[in-house]
Design brief:
The chain has 478 residues and is of the alpha+beta class. It folds into two domains: 353 residues, Outer membrane efflux proteins (OEP); 84 residues, Outer membrane efflux proteins (OEP) (Single Sheet). Helices cover 63% and strands 11% of the residues. It has eleven helices and six strands. The strands form two sheets. It has a four-stranded antiparallel sheet, with no helix packed on it.
Length: 478
């Protein structure tokens, strides 16, 4: 008897050893991600002062803009869709956590069975008695109890799946933060674009007044035979041209207002803004810090970093599928052919305990393919991580250069506007005294209008450039 038990144990150990040896999983060496960045940005001294640490409520000073952003963070549909996705990732953590804990179920059942008399079971039952009575026909059975199953996580497969779910949840949170930065940036961009259009409309209206006054002068000169009908027609055409531009700008204002309402999750309505203060809006100094801070401040970089951590764990999970799994099943309860006997113990007591060892032996192609896919996914995420870091660094470099050049452009255009504005009055006086023809007056007015609109565009680009560098540095989500 002892030899039989010993032989059975040796046999089981031998089977386990064969399965373990056969389950040796392939290993694919994956290179480590490269997170190196330059020590400083081009033409910038080493300084850790970083505008990205400024909260967006402090970064923006316009109360109307702050109100729009607040509304968007509550009602923007895309952001709310993202929040639901974050919540679903959170639910996955709970699901994965439950997988490596024992599953315990409660059960209750009732059944009835009648077998044929001319069968083995029927013949046996015909000869049986229960409590001195004839075997019941049909046979009923009642049961109630608990059943449990548990897969032993000896290879950390289930725990790694849970950790991967945690990283994926954290990555989704960073994805939500990046969406917030994008939303804040887009609302601010659109808000300043709307203010710029308001100012362009004011310039066109002012220019229309000047041109209508010039048209009146030309008509008077024509009556005095100092000019021709051609000059009158040219001035009338210029007035009509600017009136059409006025309606074009008004339509653009309607479209931009509706875009802001869409971003804030509201129905079409007037958007309050401080357009008269547009050209005097202060351009704050931006502090870029050092490139290494991008890895800490930018949500999109942190998102990919967490996705990479999850992909590493997923590769381990895929590799663990090559190893045998160990499971335990158990049950305990009461069982009887009559319900009144269910409480009679130990006669009605029933229990079971079983363990199993299952491992892949033949045709492991699906497991190999899953492992290769997980490895490729990890390598793909490494490339994505490196690309995001490089893209972030280049974004900041471009933004810093753009801010410097826009400042120079704005100063030059401001001087140009001043000179052309003075030229309008001068050309009008010369025209009245017949020392300049009407073409010079028209050209001067047109150049002045174009220069003023270009100045407004440059101011808008300056404000938007500051917003973009703020976003590129990792600000705007808190």
């Amino acid at each position: 008897m002892n030899n039989s038990i010993k032989n059975s144990q040796l046999f089981l150990v031998a089977i386990f050893a064969v399965m373990l040896l056969h389950s040796c999983a392939p290993t694919k060496k994956i290179r480590k991600e490269n997170t190196a960045v330059p020590e400083t940005f081009l033409h910038k001294n080493v300084d850790t002062l970083n505008t990205a640490k400024t909260e967006w409520r402090t970064f923006f000073s316009d109360p109307y803009l702050i109100s729009l952003i607040d509304t968007a963070l509550l009602h923007n549909q895309e952001l709310n869709i993202m929040l639901q996705s974050v919540d679903m990732f959170k639910n996955q953590i709970q699901a994965k956590k439950g997988e490596y804990l024992p599953f315990v179920n409660i059960f209750a059942g009732a059944e009835v069975e009648k077998v044929g008399e001319h069968t083995r079971n029927g013949s046996v039952e015909k000869q049986l008695e229960i409590d001195g009575k004839e075997f019941p026909e049909p046979l009923t059975n009642y049961s109630v109890g608990l059943s449990a199953s548990w897969e032993l996580d000896i290879w950390k497969k289930l725990r790694n799946e849970k950790k991967a779910a945690v990283y994926e949840y954290l990555a989704s949170v960073e994805g939500k933060n990046f969406m917030v930065t994008t939303l804040v940036s887009e609302i601010a961009d659109t808000y300043y674009e709307l203010m710029a259009l308001d100012n362009q409309l004011d310039i066109v209206n002012q220019n229309l007044d000047i041109q209508k006054n010039a048209l009146r002068i030309v008509k008077l000169q024509k009556e005095a035979a100092k000019t021709t009908e051609l000059a009158v027609r040219r001035f009338q055409a210029e007035v009509l041209k600017n009136q059409s531009e006025k309606y074009e700008i008004e339509q653009k204002i309607v479209v931009i207002e509706h875009k802001i309402n869409f971003l804030t999750g509201q129905k079409p309505q007037h958007v309050h803004r401080k357009s008269k203060e547009f050209l005097t809006t202060k351009i704050d100094t931006m502090y870029a810090g050092v490139p290494i801070q991008l890895l800490q401040n930018r949500p999109d970089i942190r998102k990919v970093e967490l996705e990479l951590a999850a992909s590493k764990l997923n590769t381990k999970v895929a590799r663990a599928n090559f190893y045998p799994s160990v499971g335990i099943k158990a049950g305990v309860g009461l069982e009887s052919f009559k319900s009144k006997f269910l409480t009679n113990t130990p006669e009605s007591l029933a229990y079971s305990l079983a363990g199993d060892l299952i491992g892949p032996l033949i045709n492991r192609n699906a497991i190999k393919a899953a492992y290769k896919n997980a490895s490729d996914q990890q390598l793909q995420t490494i490339f994505e991580y490196e690309k995001t870091i490089l893209s972030a660094y280049i974004e900041v470099e471009n933004g810093l250069s753009n801010i410097q050049n826009l400042k120079k452009i704005y100063n030059l255009k401001a001087n140009q506007v001043q000179m052309l504005t003075e030229s309008i009055a001068l050309s009008t006086r010369l025209f009245k005294s017949a020392r300049a023809d009407y073409l010079e007056v028209l050209l001067t007015q047109r150049e002045a209008l174009d220069a003023k609109i270009a100045l407004i565009e440059t101011k808008k680009e300056q404000l938007i450039a500051n917003i973009h560098i703020y976003k590129s540095l990792g600000g705007g989500w808190k």
